[in-house]
Structure formats: C-alpha cells, structure tokens
Amino acid sequence: MRRVSSAADLTYLRRAVELALEAERAGNMPIGSVLVLEGHIVAEGANEILVPQYHPGKHAEMVTLSKLPAALWPRASELSCYSTLEPCLMCMGSLLLHGVGRVVYGAKDDEGGAEYITKHLPPYYQDEHRSFRVEGPLLEAECRPLYKRARARFRSLPCG
After folding, report:
1. pTM, two decimal places
2. Please, are residues 86 and 136 in contact by the beta-carbon 8 Å criterion?
C-alpha cells in the first residue's frame, strides 16, 4: 500500500470526490470513481445503489466500468481506476477480472475494503505478465468523511 501521491493522482481523486458529492445530493452514498487512460478521464461514475431505484450492484466502480467505451477494453491494463473509497470485494474483483492495471483509492474502508485480496490471488493473477497494483489511501482527509457518511447512510437502510 502506497501513501505517496502525484499531482495527477490527487487531481483524479478530487474529480471522484466531486462525483461522490453529486451522488450524495441525489440521495445515494457519497462514493465516486473515474477511469483514466494516458492522462485523460475516459469513464466516470458514482454510487447509484439507492436512486433512481434500488440496485445493490450499482457501486461507483461498477457504474464507471459500465461506461468505459468498448474500444478501450483491449487497453484495460493501461487503465487506472480512482475511487474515493477502497473498493469492496465485488468491485476489486471486477477491476481485477476486467484487467484494469491500477487502482488508487482515497480512504480505507475499514469494514468492507478488499485490498487484502491482492496478497492472496490465485496463480493466474500472479502471472508476471499481468499487472494489478492497488495504492492508497491517498486522500484520506477529504475522503474519510465521505466514507463515514456512506456507512451511516448504509446503516440507516433496512438491509444495513
């Protein structure tokens, strides 16, 4: 886990923060995500679990992955995913399975974060030709309050 950040990393994480705040204003949990290729945001999304209708799979990273143009999938290993929160098991698994090369997150998810799985991957994912790096937390001061509000919102739900 790396805690040193570049100016570009902070720029992309701050865009994810903006998306998280938009999601919160819409009634969702404040979590945002962007995918970056060669210094350009190529897809972005935010948590859509609660609004417009309940859908448990609409985590910010999943929404962002769904918006990536099909023509860019062959370059997935060159993508960096920036998320305000350490991805959960579903999102981390999707990023890994889809071949995204790098994940950078703003705040650690103490209860549901899945960075730990990177130390326990099956042999296929440990191949020297595959790259999957996870870095964070890199923007804890701005993203930790978002995480706390997301947890509070989740706990207020009947399923939480």
Report:
1. 0.92
2. yes
pLDDT of the chain, 160 residues: tens digit per residue:
455 568 999 999 999 999 999 999 999 999 999 999 999 999 999 999 999 999 999 999 999 999 999 999 999 999 999 999 999 999 999 999 999 999 999 999 999 999 888 888 888 777 766 678 999 999 999 999 999 999 998 888 776 5
The tokens describing 114, both together, are 């899945």
**95: DSSP letter:** H
Q: Is 77 exposed, middle or buried (0-12, 13-18, 19+ CB in 10 A)?
A: middle
Half-sphere exposure of 15 (CA within 13 A, CB side): 19
52 with 27: CB under 8 angstroms? no
List active site positions. 61
How do strand 40-46 and strand 102-107 relate by DSSP bridges?
unpaired
